[in-house]
Amino acid sequence: MANLPEFNSANFESEVLNSDQPVLVDFSATWCGPCKQLAPIVEEYAADNASKMKVGKIDIDQAQDIAMKYMVMGVPTLMLFKDGKPIETARGFMPKKKVAKAFDKHLG
User: Fold this and answer.
1) Which domains does the chain have, with CATH numbers?
2) Which candidate, 58, 72, 81, 99, has a CA 20 to 30 Å from the CA of 12?
3) Gap between the Cα atoms of 49 and 64, Å rounded
4) Does the global pTM surpass 0.85?
C-alpha cells in the first residue's frame, strides 16, 4: 500500500477527524495476510474516488490507541469517517465490488 498515506496517532485528528471530505481508513497490520490481499483493492478504489474522498491506512500495531478507540478487533477493517465520525465499517477481505457497495452510498 505504498501509494496511500499513513495515518497515525500524530496526524489522525488533522487528516481524518478534521477532514472536509470523507476519509476511508484501512486498519491493517504488517503480519496480516488478508490485509496484504486487500491493499491493492483499496488503492484501486482510492484512485477511482480520488475527487470524492481521502483514503489512508493505519497500522494497528503502531496506533493501538486509535484501533482501541474505534473498537477495531480484527484486521483488515475499513472504516469511513465523515464530519469526524465513523459512519460505515466493513471487516475482512472483500472484492472491490463489495468495497464499492459498502462505501459508494456515502460519497454523494
Assistant:
1) 12-103 (3.40.30.10)
2) 99
3) 28
4) yes
Of 52, 2, 56, nearest in space to 24 by CA: 56
- Left (φ > 0), alpha (ψ -120 to 50) or beta: where does 51 sit? alpha
The SS3 of residue 93 is coil
Quote the cell numbers at residue 26: 484501512
The question of whether 85 is a catalytic residue gets the answer no
Catalytic residue among 1, 4, 25, 32: 32
Active site residue 31: no
Cell 474522498 locates to: 53
The list of the chain residues with pLDDT below 50 reads 1
